[in-house]
Amino acid sequence: MSAAREITDAWKRDLYMQGDLSWKMPEHHEALNSGFESWNEQRQTREYLDWCRRNSAQFDNMYMLRCARRTRKTTFLLIKGYEACVRHYLEVRAGRRRAAPGARGMIAIPVQKKIGGILVPLTNVIFSDAPDGWFPEYRGTGQGEHEHLYVPAIDARIRLVGINEHPRALAGGFLDWFGGTEIGFAEPGFYETYCDIIQLQMQKRPWAWSIIESSEPEILDHDFNVKFKPDAELRGCFVSMTIRDNTTLTPEEIDDEIRRSGGPDSPTTKRELFNISEPDPETQVIKHFDEDVHVVDPNDYPMPQYALAYEGYDPGTSDPLGYVALYLDYLQQQIVVQYAFMKAGMSTGELVDDIVRPTERRLWGTELEHVEKRDKKRDEHLPVVLQRIAGAQETGGGKIWEAPPGALTYWDAAHWTLKANPFGRISDTHARFILDLNRDYALSVRAAEKEDGSAEADLEYLDNLFRRRHEDGRPLIVVLNNGHTAQLIQQLRSGRWKMREDVHKVDWARSKLLGHLDCVAALKYVVRDVRWKRDPRPPRHVDVNLPNTYVPPKVMAKIRGTGQPLAAHAMFGGGARMNLRSQWRPR
Question: Residue 196, exposed/middle/buried by CB under 10 A (0-12, 13-18, 19+)?
Answer without folding.
Answer: exposed
